[in-house]
Write a structure and sequence with these properties.
Length: 228
Protein backbone atom coordinates (compact mmCIF):
# COMPACT_ATOMS: atom_id res chain seq x y z
CA UNK A 1 0.00 0.00 0.00
CA UNK A 2 1.45 3.38 -1.06
CA UNK A 3 1.83 6.32 1.31
CA UNK A 4 -0.90 8.14 -0.63
CA UNK A 5 -3.38 5.32 -0.04
CA UNK A 6 -2.35 5.05 3.60
CA UNK A 7 -2.71 8.79 4.13
CA UNK A 8 -6.16 9.14 2.62
CA UNK A 9 -7.50 5.98 4.24
CA UNK A 10 -6.58 7.27 7.71
CA UNK A 11 -8.89 9.49 9.76
CA UNK A 12 -6.45 12.41 9.52
CA UNK A 13 -6.12 11.93 5.77
CA UNK A 14 -9.87 11.85 5.31
CA UNK A 15 -10.24 15.06 7.31
CA UNK A 16 -7.48 16.64 5.20
CA UNK A 17 -9.27 15.71 1.98
CA UNK A 18 -12.54 17.03 3.43
CA UNK A 19 -10.82 20.34 4.23
CA UNK A 20 -9.20 20.70 0.79
CA UNK A 21 -12.34 19.83 -1.16
CA UNK A 22 -14.37 22.07 1.13
CA UNK A 23 -12.09 25.07 0.53
CA UNK A 24 -12.14 24.43 -3.22
CA UNK A 25 -15.95 24.36 -3.16
CA UNK A 26 -15.95 27.63 -1.22
CA UNK A 27 -13.92 29.19 -4.05
CA UNK A 28 -16.42 27.71 -6.51
CA UNK A 29 -19.30 29.29 -4.58
CA UNK A 30 -17.64 32.72 -4.84
CA UNK A 31 -17.34 32.37 -8.63
CA UNK A 32 -20.82 30.92 -9.00
CA UNK A 33 -22.60 33.61 -7.00
CA UNK A 34 -20.60 36.34 -8.76
CA UNK A 35 -21.78 35.11 -12.16
CA UNK A 36 -25.35 34.68 -11.02
CA UNK A 37 -25.46 38.27 -9.81
CA UNK A 38 -25.75 39.19 -13.51
CA UNK A 39 -29.41 38.19 -13.16
CA UNK A 40 -29.91 41.54 -11.41
CA UNK A 41 -28.38 43.59 -14.24
CA UNK A 42 -31.74 44.45 -15.80
CA UNK A 43 -30.65 44.00 -19.42
CA UNK A 44 -33.16 41.30 -20.31
CA UNK A 45 -30.68 38.55 -19.56
CA UNK A 46 -28.01 39.38 -22.14
CA UNK A 47 -25.06 39.54 -19.73
CA UNK A 48 -26.20 36.36 -17.96
CA UNK A 49 -26.70 34.44 -21.23
CA UNK A 50 -23.29 35.53 -22.54
CA UNK A 51 -21.70 34.54 -19.22
CA UNK A 52 -23.47 31.14 -19.28
CA UNK A 53 -22.26 30.55 -22.84
CA UNK A 54 -18.68 31.33 -21.85
CA UNK A 55 -18.91 29.02 -18.84
CA UNK A 56 -20.12 26.12 -20.99
CA UNK A 57 -17.75 26.55 -23.94
CA UNK A 58 -14.41 27.64 -22.44
CA UNK A 59 -12.15 24.59 -22.12
CA UNK A 60 -10.43 25.74 -18.91
CA UNK A 61 -13.79 26.36 -17.26
CA UNK A 62 -14.94 22.92 -18.41
CA UNK A 63 -11.89 21.33 -16.76
CA UNK A 64 -12.59 23.24 -13.54
CA UNK A 65 -16.23 22.10 -13.65
CA UNK A 66 -15.12 18.44 -13.75
CA UNK A 67 -12.85 19.15 -10.78
CA UNK A 68 -15.87 20.66 -9.01
CA UNK A 69 -17.95 17.52 -9.62
CA UNK A 70 -15.13 15.35 -8.30
CA UNK A 71 -14.74 17.59 -5.25
CA UNK A 72 -18.45 17.39 -4.44
CA UNK A 73 -18.46 13.59 -4.70
CA UNK A 74 -15.26 13.25 -2.65
CA UNK A 75 -16.54 15.70 -0.02
CA UNK A 76 -19.80 13.77 0.35
CA UNK A 77 -18.21 10.30 0.35
CA UNK A 78 -15.55 11.17 2.92
CA UNK A 79 -18.13 12.98 5.06
CA UNK A 80 -20.21 9.79 5.17
CA UNK A 81 -17.15 7.67 5.97
CA UNK A 82 -16.04 9.99 8.78
CA UNK A 83 -19.57 10.11 10.24
CA UNK A 84 -19.78 6.31 10.32
CA UNK A 85 -16.28 5.93 11.80
CA UNK A 86 -16.92 8.60 14.45
CA UNK A 87 -20.25 7.09 15.41
CA UNK A 88 -18.70 3.66 15.89
CA UNK A 89 -15.84 5.06 17.94
CA UNK A 90 -17.96 7.32 20.17
CA UNK A 91 -19.48 5.86 23.35
CA UNK A 92 -23.19 6.47 23.80
CA UNK A 93 -24.66 8.44 26.69
CA UNK A 94 -22.21 10.62 28.57
CA UNK A 95 -20.21 11.44 25.44
CA UNK A 96 -23.33 12.68 23.66
CA UNK A 97 -24.32 14.89 26.60
CA UNK A 98 -20.78 16.27 26.82
CA UNK A 99 -20.68 16.90 23.06
CA UNK A 100 -23.94 18.85 23.12
CA UNK A 101 -22.63 21.14 25.86
CA UNK A 102 -19.22 21.75 24.28
CA UNK A 103 -20.07 22.16 20.60
CA UNK A 104 -22.43 24.16 18.41
CA UNK A 105 -25.61 22.74 16.88
CA UNK A 106 -24.30 22.97 13.32
CA UNK A 107 -21.02 21.23 14.19
CA UNK A 108 -22.96 18.30 15.69
CA UNK A 109 -25.29 18.10 12.71
CA UNK A 110 -22.92 18.52 9.77
CA UNK A 111 -24.05 15.15 8.40
CA UNK A 112 -27.71 16.20 8.39
CA UNK A 113 -26.90 19.59 6.91
CA UNK A 114 -24.71 17.99 4.26
CA UNK A 115 -27.43 15.50 3.31
CA UNK A 116 -30.01 18.27 2.86
CA UNK A 117 -27.56 20.28 0.76
CA UNK A 118 -26.82 17.19 -1.36
CA UNK A 119 -30.54 16.74 -2.05
CA UNK A 120 -30.69 20.41 -3.04
CA UNK A 121 -27.71 19.99 -5.40
CA UNK A 122 -29.48 17.09 -7.15
CA UNK A 123 -32.64 19.21 -7.60
CA UNK A 124 -30.54 22.17 -8.77
CA UNK A 125 -28.70 20.05 -11.35
CA UNK A 126 -31.97 18.62 -12.60
CA UNK A 127 -33.56 22.06 -12.98
CA UNK A 128 -30.66 23.86 -14.63
CA UNK A 129 -27.58 21.76 -15.44
CA UNK A 130 -29.59 18.98 -17.14
CA UNK A 131 -31.73 21.55 -18.93
CA UNK A 132 -28.62 23.37 -20.13
CA UNK A 133 -27.11 20.19 -21.59
CA UNK A 134 -30.13 18.24 -22.84
CA UNK A 135 -33.21 20.42 -22.50
CA UNK A 136 -35.07 22.27 -25.23
CA UNK A 137 -33.89 25.82 -24.67
CA UNK A 138 -35.06 28.79 -26.77
CA UNK A 139 -32.44 30.85 -28.58
CA UNK A 140 -31.97 34.59 -28.36
CA UNK A 141 -29.94 36.88 -30.62
CA UNK A 142 -27.82 39.87 -29.57
CA UNK A 143 -25.28 41.95 -31.48
CA UNK A 144 -22.57 39.61 -30.18
CA UNK A 145 -24.29 36.51 -31.59
CA UNK A 146 -26.92 33.85 -30.89
CA UNK A 147 -27.16 32.28 -27.44
CA UNK A 148 -29.28 29.79 -25.55
CA UNK A 149 -31.74 31.76 -23.44
CA UNK A 150 -30.88 30.32 -20.03
CA UNK A 151 -32.17 33.53 -18.49
CA UNK A 152 -35.66 32.50 -19.63
CA UNK A 153 -35.15 29.03 -18.12
CA UNK A 154 -34.20 30.54 -14.76
CA UNK A 155 -37.14 32.95 -14.82
CA UNK A 156 -39.57 30.15 -15.62
CA UNK A 157 -38.19 27.94 -12.83
CA UNK A 158 -38.37 30.66 -10.19
CA UNK A 159 -41.93 31.62 -11.08
CA UNK A 160 -42.74 28.47 -9.04
CA UNK A 161 -43.14 29.50 -5.39
CA UNK A 162 -42.44 25.94 -4.21
CA UNK A 163 -39.04 25.95 -5.88
CA UNK A 164 -38.28 29.40 -4.49
CA UNK A 165 -39.04 28.23 -0.95
CA UNK A 166 -36.86 25.13 -1.45
CA UNK A 167 -33.93 27.30 -2.56
CA UNK A 168 -34.27 29.76 0.30
CA UNK A 169 -34.49 26.99 2.92
CA UNK A 170 -31.56 25.14 1.33
CA UNK A 171 -29.47 28.33 1.44
CA UNK A 172 -30.21 28.65 5.16
CA UNK A 173 -28.88 25.14 5.70
CA UNK A 174 -25.87 25.95 3.51
CA UNK A 175 -25.14 28.92 5.77
CA UNK A 176 -25.07 26.70 8.87
CA UNK A 177 -22.86 24.19 7.03
CA UNK A 178 -20.41 26.87 5.90
CA UNK A 179 -20.31 28.54 9.31
CA UNK A 180 -18.75 25.46 10.84
CA UNK A 181 -16.95 24.10 7.78
CA UNK A 182 -15.00 27.27 6.93
CA UNK A 183 -13.13 27.53 10.23
CA UNK A 184 -12.94 23.75 10.60
CA UNK A 185 -11.09 23.43 7.28
CA UNK A 186 -8.37 25.85 8.38
CA UNK A 187 -8.11 24.06 11.71
CA UNK A 188 -7.66 20.70 9.95
CA UNK A 189 -4.87 22.19 7.83
CA UNK A 190 -3.11 23.23 11.03
CA UNK A 191 -3.58 26.96 10.41
CA UNK A 192 -4.55 27.74 13.99
CA UNK A 193 -2.96 30.78 15.56
CA UNK A 194 -4.20 32.99 18.39
CA UNK A 195 -3.55 36.02 16.19
CA UNK A 196 -5.25 34.79 12.99
CA UNK A 197 -7.93 32.32 14.16
CA UNK A 198 -10.39 35.05 15.33
CA UNK A 199 -10.08 36.71 11.89
CA UNK A 200 -10.65 33.37 10.13
CA UNK A 201 -13.75 32.73 12.24
CA UNK A 202 -15.06 36.23 11.52
CA UNK A 203 -14.50 35.87 7.77
CA UNK A 204 -16.12 32.41 7.88
CA UNK A 205 -19.17 33.74 9.71
CA UNK A 206 -19.51 36.68 7.31
CA UNK A 207 -19.08 34.39 4.30
CA UNK A 208 -21.66 31.91 5.62
CA UNK A 209 -24.23 34.72 5.85
CA UNK A 210 -23.41 36.79 2.76
CA UNK A 211 -23.04 34.10 0.08
CA UNK A 212 -26.18 32.07 0.96
CA UNK A 213 -28.11 35.35 1.29
CA UNK A 214 -27.03 36.41 -2.21
CA UNK A 215 -28.01 33.02 -3.63
CA UNK A 216 -31.39 33.17 -1.87
CA UNK A 217 -32.04 36.72 -3.05
CA UNK A 218 -32.04 35.65 -6.71
CA UNK A 219 -35.10 33.34 -6.71
CA UNK A 220 -36.93 35.79 -4.42
CA UNK A 221 -36.19 38.69 -6.76
CA UNK A 222 -37.19 36.74 -9.87
CA UNK A 223 -40.40 35.41 -8.29
CA UNK A 224 -41.67 38.82 -7.24
CA UNK A 225 -40.58 40.33 -10.54
CA UNK A 226 -42.72 37.71 -12.33
CA UNK A 227 -45.79 38.91 -10.42
CA UNK A 228 -45.57 42.38 -11.96
Amino acid sequence: MSWVTKTFSSTLGRKLLMALTGLFLIIFLIGHVSGNMLLFKGDGGQAFNEYADFMTTNQLVKALSYLTYISIIAHVVYAIILSVVNKKARPVGYAEVKASSNSSWNSRNMGVLGTIILIFIVVHLQNFWAQMHWGSIPMVTYESGEYRDLYAVVNLAFSNIGLVILYVVAMAFLGFHLNHGFASAFQTLGLNHKKYTPAIKFIGSAFSILVPALFASMPIYIYFSSLN
